[in-house]
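Q: How would the C-alpha cells look for this protein?
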Amino acid sequence: MFAAYASSLDPANPLNGLELGDRPAPQARPGWTTVNVRAASLNHHDLWSLRGVGLAEDKLPMILGCDAAGVDQDGNEVVLHSVIGQTGHGVGPDEPRSILTERHQGTFAEQVTVPTHNVLPKPEELSFEQAACLPTAWLTAYRMLFTNAGVRPGDSVLVQGAGGGVATAAIVLGRAAGLRVYATSRDEARRKRAVELGAVDAFEAGARLPHRVDAVIETVGAATWSHSVKSLRPGGTLVISGATSGDRPSHAELTRIFFLELKVVGSTMGSKDELEDLLAFCATTGVRPVVDEVLPLDRAREGFERLAAGDQFGKIVLTVNNG
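A: Here is the predicted structure in C-alpha cell form.
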C-alpha cells in the first residue's frame, strides 16, 4: 500500500528522512481494528518524529501520521484516538502509553490498524477531512482549556502563536465556550485571522495585554514563556503542551511564579472520553476545524514542507482515495 514514512532520522534536516512509496499493509491481530483511511492531518509531532524525538532508530521504517478518519471493516465511518495503550486495551499490561508512530505504524497510508478501543464513531455532521483534524491538535487544545486550565464561560485566555494547529483550535473552541480569547502572532495577517475566528483582539508577540488573563495556552515555548508568565493574573494558570521555539527560556520567571502563586500545568494529548466529548461539541455547536489546505497523500512532501516553514494557518490534511 502507498504510504508516507520515515526511513531515517535527521535532527537538523528532518525532511531528509521522509519517503513516499509502498509499505506492507497492516496485518490483522486480535483486539485491533483495521481502518481504510480517508483523511489524515499533519502535526508537528510528525516533524519531531523525523528528528528522532519519540521515535527510535530501531522502529524504522515507520509510517507517519497520528490523526485519521476513515471506514472500518464493517463499513462504519470512524475517527481514531491516537494515544495507544492509555488504558491497556489492545496492548500488553507492561507496555507504556505511547502516541501512534512512536511504537506503531501511523495513518499516512491507505490503511492503519489500532486497538479496537481506539476507534470512535464519526459524527455524520463532520466530513472526513474535518474529523481527521481533531484527535491530536484539537484534542490537545480541548484538554488544555477545559481540563487543565479549568476555565469557565466569561474567563479570559491568552493563546500564544496564532496559526499553529493547537493555537487555532484553542481560539475557536474558546470562543464557542464563551471565553474572552486574546491571541499573539508576529505576523499581521495571522493576527487579523485570529480575530476573524473569534479572538477579542490579537497582539504582536510580547505586547502588553489590556488586562491580565485567567489562563495562558502555551505551545511556543522559550520565545513566549516570559510573556506568558507576565500576562497571568495572580493565581492564574499557564498550560503548556509544546515548545516549538525551544524548551529553555532565558528567564524562567520563577520569582513571579511563586510570588503570585501561579500554576504551571503540563498537558499532552487527551483521553478517549475527551475526544468523544470534542466530537460531540463540534457536531452540536457547528464548530469546525480550521483547514488550511487539503492535499492528496502522494503530495505529502508539500504539506510537510509548509508545516516545517510554519506558513500555514490551521490544519494541513492529506486525503486517501479508498473508494
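The mean pLDDT is 94.

Residues 134-148 form the longest helix (15 residues).

Upvote if useful.
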